[in-house]
Amino acid sequence: MTDFGIVDDSVALCKGVMYGIAPNLRIVDLTHQVNAFSIRDGARFLFGATPYFPAGTVFVAVVDPGVGSSRKAVVVKSKRGQFFVLPDNGLMTMVEDRDGVEAIREVTNPDWMVGAKISSTFHGRDIFSPVGAHIARGDDWTQVGPVVKELVRLDLKPASVDEKGLTGEVIALDGPFGNLITNITADDFLKLGYQRGDKLKATIAGREIEMPFVKTFSDVPLKQPLLFIDSRGRASFALNQASFAAAYGIDPPRAVFIPRKGR
Question: What is the CATH number of the domain that holds 55?
């Protein structure tokens, strides 16, 4: 997973390095379209994808605005037995909170890197890709470098529920569709007392918008707003066959408030 995009050869070079070390690798591209420099988006994609992969999977994640700086390159083993090769910049925050961390090591072993001269701006090719390939090949991952006690963390504020309602945040957009992805879990939303079919008034970025809570997009007329529980188990806002973000001018992050039913 990277924010490299696919317009040049960056992703192919990383794969070439991996195949050169472990020709029988199976590589799955989670995405290379993470919003440029967005560690939060990268953390969200890792959080969403990792439950669907088995123990022993090696995730190489490069969203690295601090490349070439003093930030560490690390390997993390989660308590689910998965490995993460990435910059120590907060990408692991959401996975760490859910799955726990068994061990962390800094990447310092030059034998696990590519070339005598490491680029100061392309650690995806020269550090993260070869390290990931070595681990996937079965090499002893503890040889990568010394133990690290703790990871850098993102400051992620969870949604909160009180007697008035629920306060959360729009954290991202759902690809080309323009749905609003929030940090509001289904469990927290349901504490407000709404049932499917109920109407509610959500305040998003200071604007109050009325809509029903429904199961899916086609439960409302075309281009009408709705709130639904998305495939990742979070409350999301959408228009049926149109972009909610474009229609209401929403650009994450933005505050969300939903009152309790009947208030």
Answer: 3.40.50.10790
Domain range for 133 is 9-143
154 inside domain: no
Sign of CA dihedral 158, 159, 162, 164: positive
pTM of the shown model: 0.91
Tokens of 148: 């690290």
Q: Are residues 38 and 129 in the same domain?
A: yes
Residue 121 has pLDDT above 90, yes or no: yes
For strand 234-239 and strand 160-161, is the pairing parallel, antiparallel, or unpaired? unpaired
- What total number of domains does the chain contain? 2
Choose the final residue of a domain: 110, 143, 176.
143
Residues 116 and 182 placed together within one structural domain of the fold? no
Q: What b/e sequence results for 170-205 when a residue is b if at least 16 CB atoms lie within 10 Å of its CB, and e otherwise? A: bbbbbeeebbbbbbbbeebbeebebeeeeebebebb
Other C-beta atoms lying within 10 Å of the C-beta of residue 169: 20
Length of the chain: 263
Edge to edge, what strands does the sheet with 58-60 contain?
58-60, 83-87, 73-78, 101-106
Residues 48 and 110 in one domain: yes
CATH number of the domain where residue 239 is located: 2.40.30.90
Q: Is 87 exposed, middle or buried (0-12, 13-18, 19+ CB in 10 A)?
A: buried
Q: What is d(CA 137, CA 143) in angstroms, rounded to the nearest whole number?
A: 14
Candidates 131, 130, 132, 75; CA nearest to 103 is 75
Q: How far is CA 254 from the centre of its chain?
A: 17
The rounded distance, in Å, linking the Cα atoms of 172 and 64 is 19
* pLDDT one-digit tens code per residue, 22-40: 999 999 999 999 999 999 9
